[in-house]
Structure formats: structure tokens, C-alpha cells
User: Fold this.
Amino acid sequence: MPITMEDLTVGLDSTDRDSLLDDWRWLIGLDKQPILVTAMGNAFVQDPGSGVVELLDAGTGKLKQVAASFDEFKALLSDKSFVYENLLVDDVVHLRESGKLLEPGQVYGFEIPPALGGSFDAENVVPSDVSVHFSVSGQIHRKVKDLPEGTPMSQIRLD
Assistant:
């Protein structure tokens, strides 16, 4: 089954770009805006002042720079190895082949988030509403970011 960029990304037409990443502002800052959301539930964000493009990994709660400008980022999207590594092509193909297909406005998220002890295995991946995914994952990572790895948790409250 051939894979397309539409299979690897999620359109943001019906999603409010300004508020999609509100629960990640603690990590990404106030100005960065999503420019591309991946099917695997991560987001490329751009700083409007500097033009820098970064990848927000919602599974690990980390942010990494991928391009110094939007033009550089667009060029990277033509680079097969960049796309495979950052849009997680093999994972999307595997999930689609196993019958886990996304509806419009959905991304692949985790039934039990890795930050709470869930695995990165396909069995733990479920289609999730894009807004809910980023809200829940952002809140969880904000609450656990300063805890030592392996800290037991009895409960976590989400807003």
C-alpha cells in the first residue's frame, strides 16, 4: 500500500492553530505555532520571530530544532531520510496495515502515555482526537517533567 504525505500528516483546517498547543506552552513558549502535525501525534512548530522550526515530540515531551527557516524545513520534507525519521513512516505503515486507520482530525496517540509507564509499542497506540491528544500529553508531561524517572504515581489530575 503506497503511503502519501496526507497519510503521514493531519490537516489543521478544523483545528484552532492558536490553541492546539496551549498545554505545551510551558515547553515551547508563547509565540511558536504549529505548521505541520504528524499522524504519529507530533508537531513541527515555528517561531515567528526567528523562523526556526522545531519538532515537538509529544511522546517523549521533548523539543528539538530541525531547521533554521521555513524554506529549509520545506526542503527537508523532500528528503526521504528526514521524512522517514521524523514523520515515522514505518510506524504509520505498520499501524495502517494492522487496521488502525485515522479519521479526519485524528492522530495516533497512546492508550497509556509513555510518561506514565506505557510502551511505545503498536499495541499501546490508538487513534485519538488531535486536540485531546495534545492537551492530555502536554498536561501529563508538564506534571511529570521534574520527577525522577521511575517515580511511582498514585493519581494524576488533568484540566
